[in-house]
Amino acid sequence: MKAMIRRNGVGLSVYISKKDVEEAVVAVENEDMWGGVVLVRNGWLLDLPNLPLNTGLPLTVEAKKRSDWD
């Protein structure tokens, strides 16, 4: 699914246009966020692609929804 990741005044948020859902990121698997799983406030786990550390935000990426942390 397409996910737009952006930085807001509080932290990071994810917007899924197909679901019309915007939620805050509450936990990340990797400190640099890219190439790992992020947990959003509604409980979704999203697997993000590997991108360079200096990738600017906002950015739309292809994210996979997961059922658990593995």
From TrEMBL:
GO terms for biological process: nitrogen fixation. InterPro entries: NifT, NifT/FixU_barrel-like_dom_sf. Gene3D superfamilies: NifT/FixU-like (2.40.50.240). NCBIfam families: nifT_nitrog. This is Putative nitrogen fixation protein FixT. It comes from Rhizobium leguminosarum bv. trifolii WSM597. The lineage of its organism: Bacteria, Pseudomonadati, Pseudomonadota, Alphaproteobacteria, Hyphomicrobiales.
